[in-house]
Amino acid sequence: MCKSLPIQRLVSGGQTGVDRAALDIAIALHISHGGWCPRNRLSEDGRIPETYRLTETDSGEYPDRTRRNILDSHGTLILYQSQLHGGTKLTWQLAKKLGMPYQLTDLHRAWRTPPIRRWITDHKITVLNVAGPRESSHPGIGEQAARFLKGLLTPLQTR
User: Which domain holds residue 59?
Assistant: First the structure.
């Protein structure tokens, strides 16, 4: 078995839910973070806080930031609950279309992090894009994603 690589940078779009959970976990684990967000730091709850080191796109459209985050990372981890919808489904479709590595993880199933760590190692992912649903469409997903990501990323950072 190959030794897992530490994640050097975590990328996300800054939306509520999975995106913010990923950025919060990156900050908590002292992992460099960033990514693209829509112009004016647009999110469903207003302006994305400046705490998150995100770069605004020229567009206020979410698909532009999604595409840029996929391309600016080595792989995309897509967290969801049961089914892909909306922007989460778009992330999966764009990653496939762009030929970029992606990993779908249903948070309603058993949380098995070793296969995802192998995926990270196999694809030599040191810049990880994390995407998934917003909080309003999936209440509680931010907290669920944070617990999952902490369990996934903590061991990778301590090697």
Answer: 9-157
Q: What is the CATH number of the domain that holds 142?
A: 3.40.50.450
Q: In terms of pLDDT, which residue wins out, 113 or 123?
A: 123
In this predicted model, what pLDDT tens digit does every residue of 116-144 receive, in sequence order? 999 999 999 999 999 999 999 999 999 99
Total Cβ atoms within 10 A of residue 42 = 19
- Number of domains comprising the chain: 1
Q: How does DSSP assign 46-94, residue by residue? A: EEPPTTS--EE-SSS-HHHHHHHHHHTSSEEEEEEBSB--HHHHHHHHH
- Give the 3-state secondary structure of residue 10: strand
Nearest to 7 by CA among 92, 129, 147, 94: 129
Question: Is residue 2 included in any domain, yes or no?
Answer: no
